[in-house]
Amino acid sequence: MLSEENYFSKDNNFKYCGSSQIKSFMQCESKALAELKGEWIEEPSKALLEGSYLDAALSGTLNEFKENHPELFKKDGTLKAEFLQAEVALERIKKDEMFMKYVNGDNQKIMTGQIAGIPIKIKIDSYHKDKALVDFKYIADFKYQYNPITNQRENFVTRWGYDFQATIYQKIVEQNTGKRLPFFIAAVTKEKQPDLALLSIPDEVIDIKLSELEQILPHIQQLKEGKVEPTRCEHCDYCKATKKLTKIIDYRDLDLV
Ligand SMILES: [Zn+2]
C-alpha cells in the first residue's frame, strides 16, 4: 500500500510511474534513470521547498513541516525571505473564498491505477469526491515561459507539463471511482503582490495528452526495466556532470538550445 511515507521510496518509484517521474523522463531519459537508481541526486530546488511549505500550510501540517526543515530558518530563528513571501501568498489566498473552497478538499489523496498497462501512482493536492481534482501551484508569475526545445513562449501550464499531470490524475481517478472528474489548477504567484487564478484543463486537451502518454509510457517502462538504453539530452546538470569529451567540434555546430 502506498502511503505519505513511502510514496517516493526507491521501490515504489520503480514499481509505479508518477507524474513528475514521467515529466523527468520526457526531459532527459539518462538523468531520470540515474535519479531512480540513486546514482544522481538532483539538488532539491528552493522552488520545490517553497511549494511544499504552502502545501503543508494548506494541509494543516505546517508546524510538523517546520520542525522537519531547519533550512527554512535563518540563524536568528526567523523565516528566510522566500518563506516570508510564501506567508504573504498564503495570507492572500486565505482572503479568497472561492480559492480556499477549491484547495480545501481531501488533501494529498493517493491512488494507483494503470495507463497503457503501466502502473501509475498519483497524489492529489485537493480531492473533492465525485466533484473535482485540484492541484495547487506556487509559481513565479503568470507571464510567458520560454521553451528552448520548441523555441516558443508558452503558457506555464504547457511549459511545465501540467496538462500531462491533469491527464494522468483524471484517468487514474476515473479507474478508481468510475467518474471522469474535472481537473483544476489553483495557482498563486510569488510576486510581491501575489496574483491568483483557478484554471481548468478542458477534456479536449486531456484527450490529446492521453494519446501522447499512451505512446510514451511503454518506452519509459522499458527504460526502467533496462530493456532499452536511455538517451542523453546533453543539456541538463546530469548530462553536464557526466559528459566526456571525445572530439573537437566546429564552433558553428555547437548546439545552442
Ligand atoms: Zn540530460
What secondary-structure arrangement, pairings included, does this model have?
Layout: H1 10-15, H2 19-27, H3 29-36, H4 46-59, H5 62-68, H6 81-94, H7 97-103, E1 106-115, E2 118-128, E3 132-139, E4 145-147, E5 152-154, H8 156-159, H9 162-177, E6 183-189, E7 196-200, H10 203-224, H11 237-242
Parallel strand pairs: 3-6
Antiparallel strand pairs: 1-2, 2-3, 4-5, 6-7
Helix pairs in contact: 2-3, 4-5, 4-6, 9-10
Bound molecules: zinc ion.
CATH topology: Lambda Exonuclease, Chain A
Integer tally of domains: 1
Lateral strand order in the biggest sheet: 1-2-3-6-7
CATH class call: Alpha Beta
Question: Structural class, from secondary structure content?
Answer: alpha+beta
Structure report:
This protein has one domain: Lambda Exonuclease, Chain A. The chain is 44% helix and 18% strand. The protein is built from eleven helices and seven strands. The protein has helices at residues 10-15, 19-27, 29-36, 46-59, 62-68, 81-94, 97-103, 156-159, 162-177, 203-224, 237-242, and strands spanning 106-115, 118-128, 132-139, 145-147, 152-154, 183-189, 196-200. The strands form two sheets. Strands 1-2-3-6-7 form a five-stranded mixed beta sheet, sandwiched between helices. Strands 4-5 form a two-stranded antiparallel ribbon. Strand 1 and strand 2 form a beta hairpin. Helix 2 (19-27) packs across helix 3. The longest helix has 22 residues, at 203-224. The mean pLDDT is 94. The structure holds zinc ion (ZN).
